[in-house]
Amino acid sequence: MTKISEKNHKLSMNDIVSLCKRRGFIFQSSETYGGLQGIYDYGPLGIELKNNLKSAWWKSMVYERDDVEGIETAIITHRSVLKHSGHEVTFSDPMVDCKDCKYRMRADHILNEKCDNCGSKNLTEPRQFNLMFKANFGPLEDESNFIYLRPETAQGIFTNFKNVIDSTSRKLPFGIAQIGKAFRNEVTPRNFIFRMREFEQMELEFFVKPGTDDRWHQIWVDERLKWWQEQGLNSDRLKLARQSKEELAHYAKTTVDIL
Question: Is the pTM higher than 0.85?
Fold first, then answer.
C-alpha cells in the first residue's frame, strides 16, 4: 500500500474518481456506451460500504430509539403531492445556455459571466428549470397521465403520517425514518457523487408540539454531529454551517448543514 502525504501531494477530484474506479467502489453508469452524466453504479466494495453506512444509520435512528418508526414509500409520486408541496412551482434552478458552443449551465455557478466550457460571454438570459423528472403513467401520453420521480423522500413520509399514527398509536413527539432513492434533473451535475441526478437519501422527519421546535432542532443537530463522529470522522474536520435566509428552502425556518 502506498501512503500519500498531504504535504507532498494534494488530491484532485480526478485522483479520487480514478481511485474509486480502480478499487471497485464507484463506476460511471453505462460507461461502455458513453456514460450518463450524474449517474453512478456502485462496485463490489462500494455497495458494501454504502450498505454498512445505511445499516448503521437505520440501527441508530430506528432500532435504538423508542420514538421513531421506519417506513418505505414508492419512488413514483402522484403529481398532486408535489403540486401541493410547492415543488412543481419552486423546485427549480436558474439555467443559461451558451449561444456559441450550446453548453448549458446553472446561472448561479457562472464565474465572470463566461461560459464554463468555451469562455464565451454570449449567453442567454437566465430562465428557471424545474429539477423534477417527469414520466408517463399508463399507456396514454398526455398531461392527465404524467407523474414525477420523487425529488426527495420526505413526501412519502408526510402522505403516510396519518397511516403511521393509526397503525402505531404514536403520540407527539415522534419521528418517521426512511431510506430510498431520489431523483433530480440537475442542470449541471458536478463534483463526482456530491451532486447527482439519481442518489439515495437517509431521512428522518421528527414531529413535535408547537413551541418546542427550536429545542428539538438543537437536540437533533447535536445528535447527528455526534453520530458522524462515532462513524470515525475527525471531529476537527466537522463543522456546523447555518444557512442564511436566502439559502433556506421555502418551507424551512432554519437549516444547519454538517460539513
Answer: no
